[in-house]
Design a protein that fits this description.
Structural class: mainly alpha
Radius of gyration: 18 Å
Strand content: under 5%
Number of helices: 6
CATH class: Mainly Alpha
Helix content: 55-70%
Number of domains: 1
Distance between the termini: 56 Å
Order of helices and strands: HHHHHH
Low-confidence stretches: none
CATH architecture: Up-down Bundle
Number of strands: 0
Mean pLDDT: 90
Length: 200
């Protein structure tokens, strides 16, 4: 079907662009210091694999052989799927902004680097973990484009895991590293969305 081919093409473009950008910035950051995932501990590594492997595999299967994901297809209107395309394309420049802002401080782990810097510019001026926010938007967009319940649900599960498990661990490490400076930064910013201040 021509329409389905268009959605698969847009899905592939957004997926490859997002992972390509991430790989580029992460590879560049590893030149200064690379933290092995094994230092996080076996439990954290297991949880990452438990959620990430089936999620990423499902996305690859959808692009290569969509019939392999037909078991979790949902009948979304074309307008909703095109809204997913727009959302995914809008997420790409946001992802670039986040990755460029964090620069060499990016890591595949919750651990801080030896010369880790506290980033408070770009999107980090308002949000402490914008990478997770943008990733969630991208995951949601891909689920809508694919019209697939498994991809949508797994994107939500991964967001919940990041919010409930990863963010607290990262923040504890950042508090250890930066102390009062990070505590002050945390008081004026939101974790995943900007903090809303109500003035009376």
């Amino acid at each position: 079907m021509a329409g389905e081919s268009s959605f698969r093409l847009m899905f592939a473009i957004i997926l490859v662009a997002a992972f390509g950008m991430s790989a580029f910035f992460r590879r560049r950051a590893r030149r200064t210091e690379a933290i092995p995932r094994s230092r996080e501990g076996g439990r954290t590594l297991f949880l990452r694999l438990l959620f990430a492997v089936p999620f990423y595999l499902a996305m690859v299967v959808y692009v290569v052989n969509p019939d392999g994901m037909a078991w979790s297809a949902i009948p979304l209107p074309a307008a909703v799927r095109w809204a997913g395309v727009a959302l995914g394309l809008a997420a790409l420049p946001m992802l670039y902004w986040v990755l460029r802002s964090i620069g060499r401080n990016i890591s595949e782990t919750v651990l801080t680097k030896t010369d880790h810097q506290l980033v408070t510019h770009g999107p980090y001026r308002w949000v402490r973990h914008p990478l997770y926010t943008v990733a969630t938007v991208a995951f949601l967009s891909l689920g809508l484009i694919a019209s697939n319940a498994f991809i949508l649900v797994m994107g939500g599960v991964i967001f919940a895991a990041m919010a409930l498990l990863v963010v607290p661990k990262e923040e504890a490490k950042l508090m250890d590293k930066f102390g009062e400076a990070y505590d002050e930064y945390r008081r004026r910013t939101g974790a995943l969305v900007p903090r809303v201040t109500v003035r009376g």
